[in-house]
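Worked example 3 (structure in, sequence out).
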């Protein structure tokens, strides 16, 4: 056999392809991403089917299989099929797609969540409420919240590629 040297371009393309394949197999779940930013997994319900995260800007989109509603303590929560916002260490801001029912029929949008020591502070703009982080150790299920009899596993959500537009 005759030895044919590889060009620098060929080596570069091989390296680029190899690192892309390796990084695609090491994608994390949306719940892992939450923990990386110092949030408990239970601030998102089970049923996430995909998510996008721009690690440069913190902008994110989380996709559920449909709308999700459940009770948590004395509050009724509603998650739209798409939740958007900006995440940074210990802070979610510009949140859209999550609302809480207060006082009979009044729904308010949760616009910000901050981690303050061992509490999470949920803000609806003009007011906020604090809850212990331990209340969010598990992800609630749509319809039954944390009071479900059977646990579904494997609903971790796949990361979608971030568009460059």
């Amino acid at each position: 056999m005759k030895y044919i040297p590889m060009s620098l371009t060929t080596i570069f393309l091989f390296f680029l392809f190899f690192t892309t394949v390796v990084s695609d197999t090491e994608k994390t779940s949306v719940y892992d991403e939450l923990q990386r930013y110092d949030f408990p997994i239970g601030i998102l319900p089970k049923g996430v089917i995909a998510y996008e995260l721009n690690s440069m800007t913190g902008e994110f989109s989380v996709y559920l299989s449909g709308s999700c509603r459940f009770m948590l303590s004395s509050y009724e929560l509603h998650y739209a099929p798409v939740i958007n916002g900006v995440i940074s260490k210990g802070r979610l801001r510009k949140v859209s797609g999550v609302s809480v029912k207060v006082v009979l029929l009044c729904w308010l949008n949760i616009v910000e969540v901050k981690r303050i020591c061992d509490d999470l502070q949920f803000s609806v703009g003009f007011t906020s409420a604090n809850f212990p982080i331990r209340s969010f150790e598990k992800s609630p299920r749509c319809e039954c919240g944390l009071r479900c009899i059977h646990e579904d596993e494997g609903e971790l959500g796949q990361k979608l590629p971030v568009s460059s537009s």
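Notes: The chain has a mean pLDDT of 80. Helices lie at 8-25, 30-36.
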